[in-house]
Amino acid sequence: MPKILIIAGDATEDLEFFYPYQRLLEEGYEPRIAAPTHKKLQFVVHDFVDNFDTYVEREGHSWPSDLALSDVDPAEYAALVLPGGRAPEYLRNDADYRRLVSHFFDADKPVAHICHAAITLAPLGLLKGRRTAAYPACAPDVELGGGTFVDDSAVVDGKVVSARAWPDHPDWMRAFMEVLREHAPVKKSAGDR
Fold first, then answer.
1. pLDDT value at position 193?
2. Is the N or C terminus of the chain more exposed, i.e. has fewer CB atoms within 10 Å?
3. What is the DSSP string of the chain?
4. Domain 3-183 classified CATH 3.30.230.10?
């Protein structure tokens, strides 16, 4: 069963972590969660309220990481998932995060990113020449990073699949599963249907 790396940290968007995590399990992949340190993470929920100019943040679920970023050998993983939330603001400053994310792009492995995860890719030059979705407030970051912002629920650029935010999950994960099935398929045993 192919292993898929999910990088998360405190203040990762709750839904943007759990939805892909559970979809990967359903499809027969082995998702592994890496964080700056091996610990229980506290996620957040971003929501919209009437007469408020931006989103609000509330405490979400907590979930343990499987390993620290520094302990990850990216060669062991078939693909990468980058949820959004507030965590990308500090994850992008972590040298191991940058090392890992760059590996997946350099090796042309499947990558799914959503929402604010784009702000971690732009400074690394990984969006240059790419079409990508992100939370609309991140459009300037995408463009400053040399990418083309696309306001859509699932943007596929090669093996990279991006989306704006959690309301896009069905389209985003459907597109990513198609990429995974082609480039990192789950081997079915004789007893599987």
1. 59
2. C
3. --EEEEE--TTBBHHHHHHHHHHHHHHT-EEEEEESSSSEEEEEEEE--TT-SS-EEEEEEEEE-SEEGGG--GGG-SEEEE--BSTHHHHTT-HHHHHHHHHHHHTT--EEEEGGGHHHHGGGTTTTT-EE---GGGHHHHHHTT-EE--SS-EEETTEEEESSGGGHHHHHHHHHHHHHHHSPPPPPTT--
4. no
Tokens 């407030």, residue? 137
Active-site amino acid positions: 116
Per-residue pLDDT for 188 more than 90? no
Q: What is the pLDDT of residue 192?
A: 60
Note the residue count of the chain: 193
Residues 70-129: tens digit of each pLDDT: 999 999 999 999 999 999 999 999 999 999 999 999 999 999 999 999 999 999 999 999
Q: What are the sequence ranges of the domains in the chain? A: 3-183
Residue type, 132: T
**For residue 136, how far is the Cα from the chain centroid?**
16
